[in-house]
Fold this protein.
Amino acid sequence: MSEERKLADSTGKFVQVVKDGRKVADLEWLSGRILLSNRRLVLASSEGKETIPLSKISSLKNRRDADNAMAPVSGYFSVQVGADVHLVAPSDIDEFEAGLYEALVDGEVVLVNHPAVEGGVVQDTEWEKGRLSVEPAEVGLGVASGQFVEIEVEDVGGIEVTEKTVAGSKRRVLEVEHTVEDGTSVQTHISGSSQHVAVLESLVSKGPTVDVEDIDLSNDERQVLMALYSGVSPFEIPDFVGMEVSEVEDVFDRLVETGVLSEKRVRREVRLKARGRNIASEAIADQ
């Protein structure tokens, strides 16, 4: 067993909101010291000390910019251990967050299916072992076949947790939609222990919320999005959708302004952003 080492040490607030499966009445946030090692989380106040082994954490959620009356803090983590739930609000939440994800899943071995879906098409790829490397802004997967999969948190467009048969048994699977280096939309599926899946879901959920309902696009704009989503090069779009180059460039400009595309470099090379991929996916499903 590796030697215990300290990862983060912060002042802050914390409160237990669920005990033995029941909501706690008359919540009272305690001020104190929050310590994190590679083995445990310690909440220490004038009223005592609570020690939470990291191996016992069953789920982790984070919330920034908390604005409800019950949370007099700017952000906090919800840590579930069995039938108990604690809210933890370190004063240095960024340092604490990085240390917590590192302690829980960095270096862990999981099963990876990549790409499980590419350009909206299900692929015939096999599950392989992969080793996790996590940072606040990125999840990396070193796969046994030699490839390295990078998932940028800000690039994540869709997340779903399902249950599938993996390696002959029913397992929880995290499905993450993102893009690869050439801009193609893919899904990477990750399976591991319940803790692995829950923690990774929390990490990749930190990206921007994708809301496509309020975006009103023309038919030409949707056709361009669907072509990009399917893997068509930006330079091939005019021929693919039957539009003039100038018309396609005007569409690119409007979609960049809307926040659906990002411009990679001059000469009209663009890349779908998370909301663009979601719009394209919905449009294709409606065909």
About this structure: Helices lie at 93-105, 194-204, 219-229, 237-241, 245-258, 274-285. Residues 65-70 have pLDDT under 50 and may be disordered. The chain has three domains: 6-90, 109-204, 219-285.
